[in-house]
Amino acid sequence: MGELERKYDVKIQNTEDKVKFPDELKAKLKDSGLMDAKGKLKLKGVSPKMLKRMKQEFVECPVLKEDIQFVQCFICPNFQSRVMGEVLCKGDPLK
Ligand code: SF4
What we know:
By secondary structure, the chain is an alpha+beta fold. 23% of the residues lie in helices and 26% in strands.
């Protein structure tokens, strides 16, 4: 399998709504050290400005069949890369 073998190119969409992270996602982020105790995200190589934008983004995930916040997509095992406003998604089944 090639390094960029993937099933889906998923378009990243924007919302003007204030996005609230579900508790489950927060716990996951904290567990993996991507969020501090105050609930502030710490993603490597991502500037605060970018983070702010990322929080307004979502994808219609073809695997989970629901809208997924981009931050969650970003840490998903299927996430390969972000190219020109699209997520390159491996498309493997998730539990
Ligand atoms: S990387 Fe994960 S969350 Fe993102 S679209 Fe693919 S399966 Fe869904």
